[in-house]
Amino acid sequence: MSPITHFFMGWAVANSAPSLNKRERALVTWAGVVPDVDGLGIIADRLTRNSSHPLNWWGDYHHILAHNLCFALIVAAVTAVLAKQRVKTTFLVLLSFHLHLLADLVGARGPDGEQWPIPYLLPFMKEVQLTWSGQWALNAWPNFVVTAVLIAIAFIGARRSGV
Predict the structure, then answer these.
(1) Residue 40: which of 22, 62, 15, 20 has the closest Cα?
(2) CB hemisphere CA count around 34 (13 angstroms)
(3) Radius of gyration, alpha carbons of the chain
(4) Are residues 99 and 28 in contact, defined by beta-carbon separation less than 8 angstroms?
(5) pTM attached to this predicted model
(6) Measured between alpha carbons, how far is residue 111 from residues 1, 76, 107, 108, 161 in Å?
(7) How far is CA 4 from the centre of its chain?
(8) pLDDT, tens digit, 9 for 90 and up, residues 17-29
(9) Distances from the Cα of 128 to the Cαs of 43, 93, 104, 147, in angstroms?
(10) pLDDT (tens digit, 9 = 90+) per residue, 89-105?
(11) What is the DSSP letter of 34?
(12) Burial of 24 (0-12, 13-18, 19+ CB in 10 A)
């Protein structure tokens, strides 16, 4: 799914616990997006595509480096250091992170029809790859509906809080 969808999904999780402070809500929200840090290689790919040594960092590393349990535990450890309500915030961060993985499992098929498996147990076990045969394409209508619903939830939440 889109990073925008992941952001609003994380925001919805963060705002499900009104007792969290701003920093803790931000940690939970960003945990829903942070697995896509491994997709930043697309910038280097675009910058080098016409060079004599083009990079393929996005193709080689997206859904690999940060879409796994090891990275989730790193994010959880950072959260435990930064949060005041450590247990609650860390639990919600792990929930938000794993919702990202679930959303990608359900709706992140590439435009060429290729599935993006999730190597959940990397670096411990390379063989375990999470896939779903019914994975939607990135531009499929269900992804747009999910995004629209999450944006509506954000607007309703903002309105109720007086923002």
Answers:
(1) 62
(2) 23
(3) 17
(4) no
(5) 0.91
(6) 12, 32, 12, 9, 39
(7) 9
(8) 989 999 999 999 9
(9) 28, 23, 16, 29
(10) 999 999 999 999 999 99
(11) G
(12) buried
